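Problem 12. The chain below contains 239 residues. Write out its predicted structure in token notation.
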Amino acid sequence: MLETRRNPRPWIEANLWIRNKRRQVIPFILNEVQADYHAHATQWDVILKARQQGFTTFICGRFFADTLLRPNTTSVIVAHDTDSSEKIFRIVQLFWERLPEEERRRVGPPRFSNRREFLWPKINSQFYVGTAGALTFGRGQTINNLHCSEFAFWPKPEEALIALTEAVPADGRIVIESTANGIGNYFHDLWRAAKAGESRFAPHYYVWFESPEYAALVSEEEAGAWGEQLRRAGISPRF
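Solution.
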């Protein structure tokens, strides 16, 4: 169990199911980008990414695993709008619905609420999906895992992040990810500080052609040219 907590990937791929872009429900096998981030993730991460690379799904899976494998854990995912938070919660619902019976018995039945929340009383763990601008946590509450999704599009992001991070203990995990939304905003400042080594966050950057399904649309030479332009700008793609 301790090894599984340290490296949840085998547990995720053995127990969780997802709905793919072809509307098929399939086992959750990490794609190349998800696997790379899993290998390089730190305790506090900020991710600048392309669209639809699977980061939200992977972070949901990673936090879901930690929530069920480690009693007394609270995991929170905050989306930028209500529609996105509902879509994210459906990912988590599918994780639970398709979870093997042995794992379901181990953690016990959850309580459901109309706030997009799972609470497992047997292990005292909770998974909650909320919306930026409508999410509040009371004084004294603890968030062990926090994911801020599409952070560049949050209303009042700095104010919201300060309030949320106050609930994260010293050993807690924070992932801030977003597609770009121009320059000069709070996410842009946060990213630049991480790149300069001026914050606690570790920067991770993934471009669109690092996903095989998109890379197939361009030649190797074109992808290489894109990569070279990024390197000249001081940004190195992973692959």
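Discussion. Residues 2-31+42-205 form a domain with the Rossmann fold fold (CATH 3.40.50.300). Students who got a different answer should revisit the alignment rule from Section 12.3.
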